[in-house]
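User: Structure with benzoic acid, tokens only please.
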Amino acid sequence: MPAMTLYHNPASPFARKVMVLLHETGQLERVALKTVALSPVSPDASVNQDNPAGKIPALVLEDGTTLHDSRVILEYLDHQHVGNPLIPREGAPRWRRLTVASLADAMLDAAVLIRYEKALRPPELHWPLWLDNQAEKIERGLAYLEATAVAELSAAFDIAAIGVACALGYVDFRMPESGWRQRYPELAGWYAEVSERESLRSTVPSA
Ligand code: BEZ
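Assistant:
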């Protein structure tokens, strides 16, 4: 029986990052999934009980304690396997890879906020300026990755690559009209290649 339980939803890009790391580090069997459906306006009582922030992913450990958010869970799980760490332990590579991963999270935050605004908020309350600024955040992130990060993303499928792949996957899932591949062909080439990995193929977002 799995030792840990992960609050999860197949549409959540943050939960997907955890799933991808579990695949990549051979730990899938250590975690049972507890699928929950929640949003900022329809919370889940069991998630609220284990994570006062009311968010997924949250990881309940064998001793009953709960870890959140995805960054903390990823760091924890990366200390639980014997292979090469996916989060460099020290020095410049650690801070660089975590910074690229943080940019991917910021792009995801913006994409999820746009999704919530469009899917949950009444149309008469939509705020175009706010939506535009979230979309510009994603665009700046894509432009930065194209210009500065493709070579290093190609060097290792680690915390930075997992974050960027999950961010691009979520843009494809919820913003299929984006057309980002035309504007960022190097990033698109990298993404096409890593999308063949079993960890990404088996975690493609679904509603
Ligand atoms: C979504 O449906 O897009 C979604 C679900 C869970 C967390 C974040 C986003």
